[in-house]
Amino acid sequence: MTLDIFMPSQIHRVHDAELVDVESQIGHLTLLPRHIDCAAELVSGLVRVRGEDGEERYLGIDGGTLVKIGDRVTISTPRAVVDRELGSIHEALAHRRRQREARERENRRALVRLEFELARSLFEQERHRG
What we know:
Blueprint: E1 2-6, E2 11-14, E3 17-24, E4 27-31, E5 38-42, E6 45-51, E7 56-61, E8 64-69, E9 72-76, E10 80-83, H1 86-129
Parallel strand pairs: 1-9
Antiparallel strand pairs: 1-2, 3-4, 3-6, 5-8, 6-7, 7-10, 8-9
């Protein structure tokens, strides 16, 4: 099988995938070369790929979509880390998760400030009318 990982900034291709192991919204999924065609929404986590040579590769993904048609497997994800060592993938994913959580906290704070300013502005307008 050929596995393509599509990310916003690059495409990673594995030409000799014998097995693709993923975690989807509805559970664990192992794809083999003659597996039925399918599509699945993936959760953040690890993708295990075993090549025809028996060597395993790992990808850490931040959710995404998987589509298998014939001998082609395509995963589209906003972010991925490709490595042969699980430890480095876990570290990279944890770092990216912390960065994303920090951005989300800042976004929530900004939204609270905007809501407060809007409420204050509406209150001031009502007070001047009345």
